[in-house]
Amino acid sequence: MAKKIHSPLIEACFKNRFLFLLISILSFLILSPLLRGFVGISIFLDIFLTAIFIAAIYAVSQKKYFSLIGILLALPMLAVTWSAYFVKIAVMPLAGSCFGILFFAFMVITILLFVFEQREITLDVISGAIVVYLLIAIMWAFIFRFMETLHPGSFAIPQGLGEETRPLFIYYSFVTITTLGYGDITPLTDVARSFSILEAVVGQIYLVVLIARLVGTHIAQSMNRNSR
């Protein structure tokens, strides 16, 4: 059988694919508000979100069917996102949020399976574990936005924070998953409260299980090295 020829550059990129995704997400979180004063926040959010979608698909592209599923979920979301600048249809935000939720849920599950299957702690494994936590928060932001779009008034949003809800719910989601609870945005309906509680619980459970897993893997890795 013919041996597969791998480029060292391609192998290096795959070894750091979660690091690229992590950088994309952190850039999105840090640069979006900083650039708000130069151009409308919406277009920057869409540019960074598009970059995250591309980086996420690339991160799971070692298995072709994973990348295919990611593309099939990402394309409708991106189409809805960018067509909104030209066509205003009432159901488009709902459709975009639905595909966004499905896309990020798929990425969370896929990357999480990879992280928990590893028997060696590497920089990419750590990056993947951090990425999952951040993707969970972004996924929940899409859930909260879907709820507010479907049932306006699900959240109490102070006046003066802007009309664009995406950055607000991304902020609220990260405040919730980290259990900071500043209280400037609050859930008003039972469903909104339930999902807020669920995100906080999922976030804390993930951190506990993740730390236990990484520590256990590190101990097993150290024991294997000492026994050689």
Summary, kept brief:
This protein has one domain: Helix Hairpins (Orthogonal Bundle). Helices cover 75% and strands 2% of the residues. It contains eight helices and two strands, in the order ααααααβαβα.
Distance between the termini: 33 Å
- Spatial sequence of strands, sheet with the most strands: 1-2
Number of domains: 1
CATH topology: Helix Hairpins
Query: What form results from the Cα inertia axes?
Result: globular
Spans where pLDDT lies below 50 across 5 or more residues:
1-6
Question: Would you count the extended β strands for me?
Answer: 2
- What is the tally of helical segments? 8
Mean pLDDT figure: 83
Structural class: mainly alpha
Name the helix and strand elements from N-terminus to C-terminus, one letter apiece: HHHHHHEHEH
CATH architecture: Orthogonal Bundle
Cα-atom radius of gyration: 19 Å
Please give the largest β-sheet: 2 strands, antiparallel
* Name of the level-1 CATH class: Mainly Alpha
Tag the structure with descriptive keywords.
single chain; 228 residues; mainly alpha; Helix Hairpins; two-stranded antiparallel sheet; 8 helices; 2 strands; 2% strand; globular; disordered N terminus
Fold and architecture overview:
The protein is mostly helical. The chain has a single domain (10-227), classed as Helix Hairpins. Helix content is 75%, strand content 2%. The protein is built from eight helices and two strands. The chain has helices at residues 8-15, 17-34, 41-59, 64-83, 92-117, 123-150, 165-177, 190-227; strands at residues 155-156, 186-187. Strands 1-2 form a two-stranded antiparallel sheet. The longest helix is centred in the C-terminal third of the chain and has 38 residues, at 190-227. The protein is globular. The protein starts with 7 loop residues before the first helix and ends with a helix.
